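Please, structure for the following, as tokens.
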Amino acid sequence: MAGMRTSVGLSALLIALSGLAYACGSADLSSFGGDTQNPTAAGERTGGDAGAFSPPATGASDLGPTDNAVILVHAAKSQAFRLCFEHEVDRRPQPDSELMPEANVVGVEVGGAVRLPALRGAPGQVILFEEPSIRASYPTFGGAGVGPSCEELINGDSAAYAQVLGTIDTDLSRGVHLLVVTGCPTDSILRKFSAAQCGAGWVAGLPANGGKGNLGVKEITLAGAARPASGTLPAQVVNLSLPLESARAGRDLVVTFGPLDQPSASHVPVATNPKLFGSAEPSFPAQLAYASNDTAVYGSLGFRVMFASGTGDAAADTKVLDESLADIQKSSSPRDIPPSYYATASNYALLVLGDPNAKLADGGPDTDDRRALHVLAVPVLEPKSDGGADDGGVPGALDGGAASTQ
């Protein structure tokens, strides 16, 4: 009977939170590292088998290599967060043990990403807790298996901090999936936002004056691809920056790869006008050649994000971001080094995050690399214990990345 009361209470709260999501979120809408220390609940996958390679079905020779993982991505104008899932409330909020860079607490940092083992299936409603709101309930330096479960949070005093982002019906037990938190909370006395930063469904003003947030969640499925040869970086672009999209003003958004220290050097196109919150582009990874054994190239080669004028005159194009392979690695996995990080036998998803014109609450420029426009490079297939390298690199742990180069 006690269990039935808990279930009924949880269902009632989820229904109530769904109504809150209509007012404060959009239903359709750290770091990068493996959080493989999650406790095992009844029927729960362990970090080991959840992240193992899954061979394609017999006869499916056209399928690429696969992995099983969920990558949480912070692409919103909110604080660091942890997520709960309606169909897995026996777990603790995720991530469960991954410390944020420059912090002693667990969560997904602004502009960052954290890799988790696969879930058991479709998560249902996705519920966000801003990390500071539940920090006191968990160990300062992390620790999987310690602290209240999602069910206990939702049925307890922390229920007031729960924000329903929307419902994900995609099966997340197989394959590699991005779960991207998007949008903005409501305006507050301390912080104001704009439609260009937040997108559709957001209404300016304090809640008492009709202001409405639009925090939401998007699921994007990533397809694995094998690395064809040493010295080739297979890359695809995932556009997760609404402020960048807003700043285009009708111009083409182009991502290229090449030397950043030579103004007149030609670049290789990677993606043009990648759809905001869309699939990884191009559909088959661009094959980018680089001298992987030359450590100097990691500081000079990299990705350029620009607005193309369409006139064919390069001088009329507007460069928005130049970021070297070394800087991207430092943002993506700060405890690794470029030669090993880019040696994973996998294609890489280039997550474009942040704001090209980030501002502080007082209107001044925001110089925090986590909130400024930046790129995270995520290997779709996680490195395995046998190395997972294509060219003799020593694989490093994907151990905690957020967008911070400090």
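Residues 1-9, 18-62, 385-406 have pLDDT under 50 and may be disordered. The two ends are 53 Å apart (CA to CA).
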